[in-house]
Specification:
The chain is of the alpha/beta class. The chain has helices at residues 50-58, 93-100, 110-117, 178-183, 204-215, 225-233, 237-261, 278-281, 285-291, 297-301, 313-323, 340-343, and strands spanning 14-19, 23-29, 36-43, 68-73, 82-83, 90-91, 104-109, 126-129, 140-145, 149-157, 160-165, 267-269, 305-308, 336-338. A 6-stranded mixed β-sheet has the order 3-2-1-4-7-14, with helices on both faces. Strands 8-13-12-9-10-11 form a 6-stranded mixed β-sheet, sandwiched between helices. It holds the Pfam family Glucokinase.
């Protein structure tokens, strides 16, 4: 069974982990004022479970035994047994406590972790796209086209940051421009609909490229997102047009989500695809689509948008939470497990 949190404090050292479909990344936090110690990454396929990965890839490099683990996973946290969407691991917090001698384990959604990083970004952590300025202590939004399309909001209320994970990446995505109306009939529907993630993701980008090729009446086969971005660098016309449509749609979705929470604190783009398409994100099409929200064009022009350049945004958010838990109102119900000894 899972146990409710007794307080917002954590027993140090805290091990933070970002568990992806391919790699798991780790860092250690020795105290609220201590520097973060990065522990590198390891392939999930190289270990039978997370406890094994920690024992073999993290603990040999440190003299400190973690007492708390805060973990970010792709997907909802719905019980004591948490299967990963894109990896063979199953996260069992109570088993981790027994295996590793931990006092407590917290499991959060991966984009919730990315939202936790948003308030502290500065300098080279981000690159702004277009106009707008951050209004302090206002809502922020993070959107990440990668394997899927992750999304989360960071709301500011009662002097506290409140991360709100969700499934905003599955909102409906329809045609707007005359060119869209010519391309959309060629897009394969999934579940009878065209959702944002079905185009704005690693699996969606080849689907969009096939539709663009049919629209352009040409034969072109792209199996992976990287093949499309590589072809666009060589100015392949189908690849270039695909990425132009991609960023235009990403701008529309980002604008819709910004309006939903009135994200005057900015919209932040992460995910594995984002850094590969900077040329297209900054050529004006993304911002034009982002701002085209009549009757609120003037409002949208004031909301800034950013590419996140920080190399480990989820880890950064988990570290911020580990060091300053009282700065965030994180829902711990059903996501915080304690050892029997720590209950007393």
């Amino acid at each position: 069974m899972s146990f409710p949190a007794i307080s917002n404090s954590f027993a140090y050292p805290v091990l933070v982990a970002d568990i992806g479909g391919t790699n798991a990344r780790f860092a250690l936090v020795d105290g609220p004022d201590a520097p973060t110690r990065m522990c590198g990454k390891t392939a999930t396929a190289g270990h039978p479970d997370i406890s094994s990965a920690i024992r073999n890839a993290v603990l040999p490099g440190t003299n400190f035994t973690p007492r708390t683990a805060i973990i970010a996973v792709a997907g909802p946290v719905t019980g004591d047994v948490i299967p990963l969407t894109n990896a063979a691991w199953v996260i069992e917090p109570l088993k981790m406590i027994a295996d590793l001698g931990l006092q407590q384990v917290v499991v959060l959604n991966d984009f919730e972790a990315q939202a936790l990083a948003l308030p502290a970004y500065s300098g080279n952590d981000v690159e702004q796209i277009g106009p707008g300025a951050i209004r302090e202590a206002t809502a922020k939004f993070v959107l990440g086209p990668g394997t899927g399309l992750g999304a989360a909001a960071m709301i500011h209320a009662s002097d506290t940051w409140v991360p709100v994970p969700g499934e905003g990446g599955h909102v409906e995505l329809g045609p707007v421009t005359p060119e869209d109306f010519e391309i959309w009939p060629h897009i394969e529907r999934v579940g009878g609909r065209i959702g944002a993630e079905q185009l704005l993701s690693g699996t969606g980008l080849p689907r969009l490229a096939r539709a663009v090729a049919r629209h352009m009446r040409t034969e072109r086969t792209f199996e992976t997102p990287s093949s499309i971005t590589a072809a666009a660098q060589d100015n392949d016309p189908v690849a270039v047009k695909t990425l132009e449509v991609f960023v235009r749609c990403l701008g529309r979705v980002a604008g819709d989500l910004a309006l939903t929470v009135l994200a005057r604190g900015g919209v932040y783009l992460t995910g594995g695809i984002t850094p590969r398409i900077t040329r297209f994100l900054t050529d004006g099409g993304f911002r034009a689509a982002f701002e085209a929200k009549a009757p609120h064009e003037a409002l949208m022009a004031k909301i800034p948008t950013f590419i996140v350049r920080h190399p480990n945004p989820a880890l950064e958010g988990l570290v911020a939470f580990a060091k300053m838990p009282d700065a965030f109102a994180v829902d711990m119900q059903g996501r915080h497990w304690r050892s029997a000894a720590s209950q007393t």
